[in-house]
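One such shown below:
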Amino acid sequence: MTKDYVKLFYESLPKKYRNNLELEAKYASIENYEQMTSTLMSVSLFVTMLVSVLVPYGPVVKASLFALMGPASAFLVPYIIISIAAERRKNEMENVLPDALLLISANLKSGVSIDKAFRMSARDEFGPLAEELRLSAMEMFSGEPVEDALMDMEDRVKSELFKETLKLLVDGIESGGNTAQLLESSADDIR
C-alpha cells in the first residue's frame, strides 16, 4: 500500500480507536503506527479468512465464522500488539530506573548542571530510558525549563512508577530541595 492509501485507510477507522491506538503507540515509541495498523489488520483478516475456509463445516458456518471473527481480529490484533510493545518498553524502563537515578545523582554531585547530568546518564545499557533521558536533556539544553522537560517525559511513558518519580523530582526542584539526595532516596524506594 502506498502512504496515501494507508493514511486514508487509517483515517477511516473510528476516532476513539485511533486515539487509543495512538496513545499506546506513543508509549511504545512507535512512529509508523498507521502503516503497522493497516498491515496487522490485513494480516489478521487474511488469517481469519484462511481459518474460516479450513474449518470442516459448510459454507454458511464458514461465512458466519469469518463475519464474526474477521472484524474482531482486525481491530484487536493491532491494538494488542502495540499495547504489548508499550508494556515491554515500560518494564524495561522500570527495571533500569533506579540505576539511572543513581547515575544522575552522582553526576549532579560532581557539579554538572541537570541537563548535562541527564545527557551523561543516557547510557545505551538503559535501553529506552536512555532515549528518554537524551530527549529530555536536549529539551533542557534548548532552553525549556527543567520541570517542563520532565513533564514531557512523563507524558511519553506509560508507567505510574515513572510518573510518580518524575512528579517527586519536579516537586523537589520547584521547592529548591537537594536534587541529588532526592534521586538517591527515590532509587532506594524503587528498589
Notes: Residues 59-109 form the longest helix (51 residues). The chain has a mean pLDDT of 88. Residues 63 and 81 are 26 Å apart (CA to CA). The chain is about 80% helix and 0% strand.
